[in-house]
Amino acid sequence: MTSDASQYPPRRRFRGRLPAFLPVPLRGRGDGWTVERQGAFIGLLAETGSVSEAARRVGMSRKGAYQLRSRPGAEGFAAAWDVALGSPPRKVTGEDLARLAFEGTIRPVMRAGRYRGLAKKSCDSALLRLLDRLDRAAGRAGAGEVW
Question: Where are the domains of the chain?
Fold first, then answer.
């Protein structure tokens, strides 16, 4: 069998927009799943359609990618993974509201179906929702008090 490149199907072109997501919280290791590697992995996963290829291109293993996906706090990463492979987007719960407000999200940038980089963005709406919750809680607590 020859190693002719024509025997492999062409890379697929991702059509659509990848969602912004909260990176999985990890210890700071330069050789691990950094925020940049997580975003690049999702972008390359959308570009290639292959977990193994995307992991290899960011310098990580396929097994490590699946372990990262199954960690606590990886709901946003898993949702972005699903969208990158063509599944319909799923809603991430509001449990990460404080993280969204203070850390912000990352979003892989795709142009013409190819991964181009990361966009980091603070989430002002999450901060406003968090402040609204605090205001409502303070209002309930102070309703019985007389000034």
Answer: 15-142
